[in-house]
Write a structure and sequence with these properties.
Radius of gyration: 23 Å
Largest sheet: 4 strands, antiparallel
Distance between the termini: 7 Å
Oligomer: single chain
Strand order of the largest sheet: 1-7-2-3
CATH architecture of the largest domain: Roll
Strand content: 25-35%
Helix content: 25-40%
Number of helices: 2
Number of domains: 2
Shape: elongated
Number of strands: 7
């Protein structure tokens, strides 16, 4: 038990860093003024007026462009045209700092509580022993 506090702190630190590095991503609404920049954005979600959703996961073979009043999605050799009259909104996937921070804090608190309950169940912590 000589190194238990240092080990505990190191584990909490590693958990926190790993969560921050992977992070949470959420879809944020794109303003209509930014529709011309869809090519430069991350993954996007097209929300239709009837509530259905179409997610475009961007990679080397995928691209999205606005051409007149249509959204054109290129995926490999396939092309899909979506009329903007069918679209309610477009959302972009971005890093969500608030959710990531909440996840880190929740994980650390949960881990501390779990270790505390384990130590309590085992008869307490004796720093001299």
């Amino acid at each position: 038990m000589k190194y238990s506090v240092a080990t505990f702190r190191f584990i909490v630190f590693l958990l926190s860093v790993s969560i921050v590095l992977t992070g949470c991503h959420s879809y944020f609404e794109v303003s209509r003024d930014d529709y011309s920049n869809l090519e430069k954005m991350n993954d996007i979600k097209v929300v239709y007026k009837d509530g259905k959703e179409f997610i475009v996961e961007k990679d080397d073979t995928t691209n999205v462009k606005m051409v007149e009043d249509s959204l054109i999605v290129y995926q490999g050799i396939e092309t899909k045209s979506i009329g903007m009259n069918e679209v309610e909104k477009i959302r972009e996937s971005r890093f969500d700092f608030g959710r990531t921070l909440s996840l880190v804090v929740g994980t650390v608190v949960g881990f501390i509580l779990a270790v505390g309950l384990f130590v309590w169940a085992m008869g307490g912590y004796d720093p001299g022993g």
